Amino acid sequence: MQQPQSQISVQSLNAFFRSTRALKDVNVQVLPRSVLAVIGPSGCGKSTFLRCLNRMHELIPGATATGQVLIDGQDVYSSNVDPVMVRRRVGMVFQRPNPFPTMSIFDNAAAGLRLNGVRNSYAEQVEKSLRQSALWDEVKDRLHAAATSLSGGQQQRLCIARALAVEPEVLLMDEPASALDPIATARIEELIRELRERYTIVIVTHNMQQAARVSDWTAFFYMGELVECAPTEKIFTNPKEQRTEDYVTGKFG
Fold first, then answer.
1. 178 in a domain, yes or no?
2. DSSP 120-173
3. Left if phi > 0, otherwise alpha if psi is -120 to 50, otherwise beta: which for 240?
C-alpha cells in the first residue's frame, strides 16, 4: 500500500540568531490533515522551528535559516518564492491572543483578506471562518463591537478565524492556549480536533497532556535537535530515545 505523501517535508533545517545556532539539521515529515505536536523544554528551539515553516523566523534582525522546507513539494525558501505568499498558505496563531485592538470583530476576521487584496464582499468568508473557529454563534449579533470586548478565549478563537479566512493549507499554533483558563483551553483543544479534518496543524505546546490529547504525531526537541518524532502514543508510552523518556516522565524539563 502506497504511503501518503507528506504535506510538509523539512530537510536539514538549521536556524541561526546571528552566530548562535538554534536548530541543528532538523528533518521531519508532516502528513496531510494531521496534527504534529512539538514538545521540549524552554529554549530548545520549538518556536524557532515553527517560525521557520512560514518564514517568520527571518523577520527577526540577524536571524537566518538554511535547508529546505517543502510545502506540497515546493521549497518555501527557494529564491523565486514570495515569503508573503508563504505566510498566506501557512497561517499562524500566537501564544497570546492578539486581535487588532482598534478594529471590530468583523474587521479582525477580514483583516487577512484585505491584506491579501481580496476585493469582493468579505461577509461570506468572515462568517465561514468564524464558524470554523466555533465563534459565530457567540458573536453574530455583535460583529461590529470591538474585538477587545471579547474574553481571552474568544479573542484567541478570533485570531484563529483571522488565520483561516485566507484559506491556508497549514495552520501553525505557538502555545495557543497557554494564556487561557481551563475552560477556554478545552474549547481550543476541541477546535483543533475539528480543524484537523480540513487542515494540517503544527502546534507547539509546553503541556504534555495537551499534546497527548490533540496530536497524531509528537516531535521532541532538545537543545536545538529533533531527538525523536513518532506517533504520539508511542512517544508517551514507548519512546525510542532515553532523553525522550526522561522528558515525558518529568525527570527534567
1. yes
2. S--HHHHHHHHHHTT-HHHHTT-TTSBGGGS-HHHHHHHHHHHHHHT--SEEEE
3. alpha
Q: For the chain, give me the number of helices (H) and strands (E)? A: 10, 10
The answer to whether the Cα torsion of 45, 51, 55, 56 is positive or negative is negative
What integer pLDDT is reported at residue 1 of this predicted model? 40
Q: What is the pLDDT of residue 183?
A: 93
Rounded CA Rg of the chain: 18
Query: Does residue 56 sit in helix, strand or coil?
Result: coil
pLDDT of residue 63: 97
Asked if residue 115 is part of any domain, the answer here is no
* CATH classification at residue 91: 3.40.50.300
pLDDT < 70: residue spans in the chain: 1-4, 117-119, 253
